[in-house]
Design a protein that fits this description.
The protein is of the alpha/beta class. It contains six helices and seven strands, in the order αβαβαββαβββαα.
Length: about 190
């Protein structure tokens, strides 16, 4: 088995493959109880994840989320059963430990603001109903990603969710007739 630290060093920062992960009901661990951990937890909950947060201290706001809170320092056993992990501590040693243990277990890990310790990065996201616009610089510049997201969001039509619903219905109708929608020449839905 490859050394996790060596894998991290050998990985290029631009080798990402964009996907949308369905977290509904999946167990996610957040390590850290600060403002950034709170924001990440809110986003995970909005995606339907079942979140457990481990931290010696918690900022105000966690109790209102209704997540499982474990008030102590991170332990390797916290990873048991986790499908995805967000490490949001201010401790580089703990961040490295979490990343290494996730790599060894095959668990996806995002160490906030530390792209070298990430098996996935979190993009800047705009949600409009079922439409998700995500912009990533693969951890190089979250500020640039946010600015690009905001510019793209400003260009989106107000009724984008209705457009997506209409196209989904048209797609289902084609599929019901046995037509693969992969090769359909769709007209511009925004025209």
């Amino acid at each position: 088995m490859a050394d996790p630290a060596e894998l991290a060093r050998s990985r290029r920062i631009d080798d990402g493959f964009p996907v949308v992960v369905r977290l509904q009901g999946r167990p996610v661990l957040v390590v850290g109880g600060g403002v950034i951990a709170l924001r990440k937890t809110e986003g995970l909950l909005a995606s339907g994840a079942t979140v457990r947060v481990v931290s010696p201290e918690f900022v105000d706001g966690f109790e209102a989320l209704g997540v499982e809170r474990v008030q102590r320092r991170y332990e390797p056993s916290d990873l048991d059963g986790a499908w995805l992990v967000v490490a949001a501590t201010n401790d580089a040693v703990v961040q490295q430990q979490i990343f290494d243990e996730c790599e060894a277990r095959g668990v996806f890990c995002n160490a906030v603001d530390d792209p070298d310790r990430c098996s996935f990065v979190l993009p800047a996201v705009e949600r409009r109903g079922p439409v998700i616009v995500a912009v990533s610089t693969q951890g190089r510049s979250p500020t640039l990603a946010k600015h690009l997201r905001d510019r793209l969001a400003a260009a989106l039509p107000d009724d984008l969710d209705a457009i997506a619903d209409r196209l989904a219905a048209e797609r289902r109708a084609l599929q019901a007739r046995g037509i693969s929608t992969e090769d359909v020449a769709w007209p511009d839905p925004l025209a």
